[in-house]
């Protein structure tokens, strides 16, 4: 597990932990846990069910060498409703691969039991640069990391509840970096992509918490901006909403959002 994962899952465990007792009380015995884009239970699930039995089902597009895993793309889960019903669904560090939030939510709710929990995180920003649209020098970001995998970062997050007082420190820190990149980042990107550097750097100069939503929505189609309201309109109650900006720990421009939602049907 890389250093980013270590800090990321430490945050997730801490954020979800206050809900453990309520979740365990509401869930049936031996619940079915589906891990989307996972090969094994996350530390969040292991911690939640530390003393309770559960049935785990891994599901990932790249699961060929994982015994018992379901081989499905995050963007085509339409068949899952015919083969399983889940009481808990996790999806970590993968939401940016979703090509259509409306299709994802529709297919997700088809295999959720009433009272099921969704534990999921969403990303604003990128690993290397304080940009909003996941592109470097005009190219989709994921292609730079692994050209053999055609997946690209597609979906981000914005909800007005990001402006609540308890989240503003994280949001403001992200926007501050977007307005004025650390010198090391400026020099690296300017050397690699001089023309794109000035265009991107200039475009972020006025970004702050109050116009972040406008900036995100100008970069993305509406079907690629997830919000809490999208989940609420599709039968979910938001049980937990948390944020964390990861630059201080790992030097990456990742503003992550955690959502724990309960499905009412």
Would you spell out the secondary-structure blueprint of this structure?
Elements: H1 3-16, H2 20-26, E1 32-36, H3 43-48, E2 55-59, E3 86-91, H4 101-109, E4 112-125, E5 135-136, E6 139-140, H5 141-145, E7 156-157, H6 165-179, H7 183-192, H8 194-203, H9 212-219, E8 225-226, H10 228-232, E9 236-245, H11 247-250, E10 254-263
Parallel strand pairs: 1-2, 1-3, 3-4, 7-8
Antiparallel strand pairs: 4-10, 5-6, 9-10
Helix pairs in contact: 7-8
Can you give a write-up of this model?
The chain is of the alpha/beta class and 265 residues long. Helices cover 35% and strands 22% of the residues. The chain has a single domain, classed as Rossmann fold (3-Layer(aba) Sandwich), CATH 3.40.50. It contains eleven helices and ten strands. The model has no long low-confidence stretch (mean pLDDT 93).
């Amino acid at each position: 597990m890389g250093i980013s994962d270590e800090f990321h899952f430490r945050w997730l465990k801490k954020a979800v932990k206050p809900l453990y007792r309520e979740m365990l009380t509401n869930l049936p015995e031996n619940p079915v846990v589906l891990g989307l884009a996972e090969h094994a239970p996350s530390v969040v699930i292991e911690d939640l069910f530390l003393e309770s039995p559960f049935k785990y089902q891994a599901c990932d597009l790249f699961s060929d060498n994982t015994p018992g895993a379901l081989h499905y793309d995050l963007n085509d889960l339409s068949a899952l409703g015919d083969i399983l019903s889940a009481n808990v669904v996790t999806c970590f560090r993968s939401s940016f691969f979703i090509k259509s939030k409306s299709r994802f939510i529709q297919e997700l709710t088809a295999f959720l039991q009433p009272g099921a929990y969704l534990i999921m995180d969403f990303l604003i920003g990128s690993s290397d640069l304080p940009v909003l649209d996941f592109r470097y020098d005009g190219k989709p970001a994921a292609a730079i990391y692994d050209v053999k995998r055609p997946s690209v970062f597609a979906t981000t997050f914005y909800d007005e509840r990001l402006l609540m007082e308890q989240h503003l420190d994280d949001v403001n820190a992200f926007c501050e970096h977007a307005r004025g990149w650390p010198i090391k980042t400026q020099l690296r990107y300017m050397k690699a992509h001089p023309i794109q550097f000035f265009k991107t750097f200039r475009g972020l100069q006025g970004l702050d918490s109050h116009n972040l939503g406008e900036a995100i929505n100008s970069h993305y189609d509406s079907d690629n901006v997830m919000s809490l309201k999208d989940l609420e309109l599709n039968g979910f109650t938001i049980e937990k909403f948390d944020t964390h900006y990861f630059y201080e720990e790992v030097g990456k421009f990742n503003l992550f959002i955690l959502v724990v939602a309960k499905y009412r049907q």
